[in-house]
């Protein structure tokens, strides 16, 4: 094994390579049921289910699905918020040898149609209130539709609750799968820079990542009485793997939060006393605004983890100072199930860094233009990754797969650097690199400086075509409550902290920034708006 500088920073007892068992995802729930049947598996509002009850619900739903014609290899679109129904539907589809097609519950009919057509899904499981959207998206009426909270089965749709009630757990089939080959999940990329692609994640890809996260982050935390707060959406790979599946793997409790509301979130923390929490950046930013988010309120949390999108350094510092909680930053992609890096819970934690690679994961920084030369310590290049959590490929996109997976290495498209200790720092996306007057400008460096300004709540930096410079730097910011900024004074403030070519030539003050459902800022939208404004001048 090649020696890597980050190995010396692994927490005590964590090996560089762990022996990852071969397992299907359905085996995780079966194991939890056998070993901890009376443990609380799910808290969803006033409803509490033990692992025995959850397993029985999954068996009943599996039986009804199979009776309705569900076959191994079928793809089922699940369009549900975090809920007990999502968990049942997910494990039932997996048990029957099907593939879960993850869908954002907020998708429009047009977005759903693209997803259905690309994935060739034959089933849809959704809320009854979204029935019209599915009907408009499914123009060919080829989907078997199951609706949660439907009054009753009617026409071409089935009631989720009726299927559970009428299913026979003793007759639930279980398909024999190959964990290394069978695709458990089609996880569509966020599409922040272009058309979404379906990431094929096998059972073994996802289970490997659950196992890696367990060993690196929570192995030494007692499993008895652990409660994971499920605010990260399960339809996103991060919430699915780092919250739902990690909890099931440990026989812990999942607290479902369907939609994030800061005040209700804090009420749940006070009532349920969760011990582990994984959140996206927008959640941490929103909690900072709440006077009730105090150290006393948050004292039950042993660890807070951040993922899905970069968390600004100033937000980390402010949140930890206010609440006393510790945030472990990490990094991952849909293509890696998702986690590849994490700051260790024990040992050196470097704020602003994505941490070090988790066990069984190798990575390096390569020349961003050729992808071949490995860059020296401290220099910026493209981050490439190898490990058991790396996807099988993109669904029906062979050329995209060949460009992204090269000799077992996943080319992430993210620009990063590694320090002498083996800690990694993301500086931006290759596609976001701004070349202004021949200089390389990394947006995240400027954004981190903007977040230091006391009046700025959020910031985004991007490049705009410029006849003279090639590209020019532009920024959009959101102010804190009752904040005020004079734009020219802000530019002078930035000039004291940045080289002149990095200072945005224009700064827009907006009420909010466009984002994906997991908090990633849609810079493409901001760029398009800026280009349109240029044309109108």
Automatic annotation (TrEMBL):
<feature type="domain" description="AMP-binding enzyme C-terminal">
    <location>
        <begin position="445"/>
        <end position="520"/>
    </location>
</feature>
<dbReference type="GO" id="GO:0016874">
    <property type="term" value="F:ligase activity"/>
</dbReference>
<dbReference type="InterPro" id="IPR050237">
    <property type="entry name" value="ATP-dep_AMP-bd_enzyme"/>
</dbReference>
<keyword id="KW-0436">Ligase</keyword>
<dbReference type="Pfam" id="PF13193">
    <property type="entry name" value="AMP-binding_C"/>
</dbReference>
<dbReference type="InterPro" id="IPR045851">
    <property type="entry name" value="AMP-bd_C_sf"/>
</dbReference>
<protein>
    <submittedName>
        <fullName>Long-chain fatty acid--CoA ligase</fullName>
    </submittedName>
</protein>
<feature type="domain" description="AMP-dependent synthetase/ligase">
    <location>
        <begin position="31"/>
        <end position="395"/>
    </location>
</feature>
<dbReference type="InterPro" id="IPR020845">
    <property type="entry name" value="AMP-binding_CS"/>
</dbReference>
<dbReference type="InterPro" id="IPR042099">
    <property type="entry name" value="ANL_N_sf"/>
</dbReference>
<dbReference type="Pfam" id="PF00501">
    <property type="entry name" value="AMP-binding"/>
</dbReference>
<dbReference type="InterPro" id="IPR025110">
    <property type="entry name" value="AMP-bd_C"/>
</dbReference>
<dbReference type="InterPro" id="IPR000873">
    <property type="entry name" value="AMP-dep_synth/lig_dom"/>
</dbReference>
């Amino acid at each position: 094994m090649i020696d890597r500088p980050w190995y010396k920073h692994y927490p005590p007892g964590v090996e560089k390579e762990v022996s990852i068992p071969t397992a299907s995802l359905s085996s995780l729930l079966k194991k939890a049921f056998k070993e901890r049947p009376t443990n609380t598996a799910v808290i969803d509002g006033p409803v509490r289910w033990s692992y025995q009850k959850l397993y029985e619900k999954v068996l009943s739903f599996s039986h009804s699905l199979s009776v309705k014609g569900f076959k191994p290899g079928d793809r089922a679109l699940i369009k549900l918020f975090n809920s007990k129904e999502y968990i049942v539907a997910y494990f039932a589809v997996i048990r029957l040898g099907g593939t879960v097609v993850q869908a954002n519950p907020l998708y429009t009919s047009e977005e759903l149609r693209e997803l259905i057509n690309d994935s060739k899904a034959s089933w849809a499981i959704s809320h009854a209130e979204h029935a019209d959207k599915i009907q408009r998206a499914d123009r060919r009426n080829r989907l078997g539709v199951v609706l949660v909270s439907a009054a009753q089965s009617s026409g071409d749709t089935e009631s989720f609750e009726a299927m559970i009630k009428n299913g026979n757990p003793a007759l639930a089939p279980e398909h024999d799968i190959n964990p290394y080959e069978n695709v458990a999940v089609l996880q569509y990329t966020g599409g922040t820079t272009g058309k979404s692609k379906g990431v094929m994640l096998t059972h073994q890809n996802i289970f490997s990542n659950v196992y890696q996260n367990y060993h690196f982050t929570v192995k030494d935390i007692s499993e008895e009485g652990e409660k994971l707060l499920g605010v990260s959406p399960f339809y996103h790979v991060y919430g699915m793997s780092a919250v739902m599946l990690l909890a099931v793997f440990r026989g812990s409790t999942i607290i479902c939060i369907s939609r994030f509301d800061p005040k209700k979130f804090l009420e749940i923390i006070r009532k349920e006393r969760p011990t582990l929490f994984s959140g996206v950046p927008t959640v941490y930013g929103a909690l900072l605004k709440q006077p009730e988010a105090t150290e006393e309120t948050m004292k039950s949390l042993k660890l807070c983890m951040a993922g899905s999108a970069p968390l600004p350094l100033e937000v980390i510092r402010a949140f930890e100072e206010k609440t006393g909680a510790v945030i472990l930053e990490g990094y991952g992609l849909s293509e890696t199930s998702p986690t590849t890096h994490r700051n260790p819970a024990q040992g050196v934690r470097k704020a602003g860094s994505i941490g070090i690679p988790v066990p069984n994961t190798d990575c390096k920084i390569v020349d961003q233009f050729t992808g071949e030369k490995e860059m020296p310590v401290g220099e910026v290049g493209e981050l490439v990754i190898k490990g058991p959590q790396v996807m099988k490929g993109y669904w029906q996109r062979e050329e995209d797969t060949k460009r992204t997976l090269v000799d077992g290495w996943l080319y992430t498209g993210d620009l990063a650097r590694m320090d002498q200790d083996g800690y990694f720092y993301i500086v931006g996306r290759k596609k976001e690199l701004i070349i202004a007057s021949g200089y390389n400008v990394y947006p995240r460096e400027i954004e981190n400086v903007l977040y230091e300004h006391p009046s700025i709540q959020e910031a985004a930096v991007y490049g705009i075509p410029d006849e003279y410079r090639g590209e020019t730097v532009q920024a959009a910011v959101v102010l804190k409550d009752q904040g005020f900024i004079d734009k020219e004074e802000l530019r002078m403030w930035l000039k004291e902290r940045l080289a002149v070519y990095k200072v945005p030539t224009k700064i827009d003050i907006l009420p909010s920034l466009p984002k994906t459902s997991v908090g990633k800022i849609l810079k493409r939208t901001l760029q398009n708006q800026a280009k349109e404004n240029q044309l109108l001048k």
